[in-house]
Amino acid sequence: MITTGRIMFFGGLGASLAVGWLIFPALLYKHIDQPLQFSHSVHTGEAAGLPCEDCHRFGEDGRFQGIPAVSKCAECHAAALSENPEEQRLVETYVTPNVEIPWLVYSRQPENVFFSHIHHVKLAGLECERCHGPHGKTDNLRPLEVNRISGYSRDIWGRSISRVRMQPWEGMKMDDCAGCHAKQGVVDSCLDCHK
Asked: Which pLDDT tens digit goes with each residue over 51-102?
């Protein structure tokens, strides 16, 4: 026989879990849309066939150059190539006036973290998808999820509150880095990554 006390206990437990696992994370992160809906699949697919390195390259000193300048976009988009409103907005708002696109970076690491793309991509041979997921095959850019307290992206902020992985790829969280290093037998100290 179920008593009123048990009903209240399990009801309170269920409500607490819902608040902790569903409502609190929804309130903790704000969603910010990218300035344009860039399609990686159009640019890397059969239509254009651009390799990732065409836009995301390494400098001569080995540093990752990140998101390309609007001048790179202007090489193909001096004028709109189609009736696509996003492409027309790209040309009118950014390419023609030569204004840099204020892209939001999903993977900006905290100030005390040093990460070398060249060590992981060129020396270790890791594919970009290993940490960034299938980002290069997407038709739209997802919104940036920013922690309202820390200001960091959800992509680099450790395990989720529920301990349930939000995506199938490894990611850019410290837990993911430590797990990958352990699997690969990479022995390092905290100071190798943290300043």
From this structure: 888 888 888 877 888 888 999 999 888 887 778 888 899 999 999 999 999 9
Which of 24-33, 99-108, 148-157 bottoms out in mean pLDDT, i.e. has the lowest?
148-157
DSSP states along the chain: ---HHHHHHHHHHHHHHHIIIIIHHHHHEEEE--SS---HHHHHSTTT---GGGTS-B-TTS-B--SPPHHHHHTT-SS-SSS-HHHHHIIIIIITTT----PPPTTPPPTTB---HHIIIIIS---THHHH-GGGG-SSPPPEEEETTT--BGGGS-S-TT---SSSS--SSHHHHHHHHHHHT----HHHHB-
Q: Which residue has the tokens 């038709």?
A: 139
Q: How much of the chain, in percent, has pLDDT values that exceed 90?
A: 20
Instruction: Identify which has the larger pLDDT, 158 or 14.
Output: 14
Quick one: tokens of 139?
Answer: 């038709």
Domain locations in the chain as residue ranges: 106-195
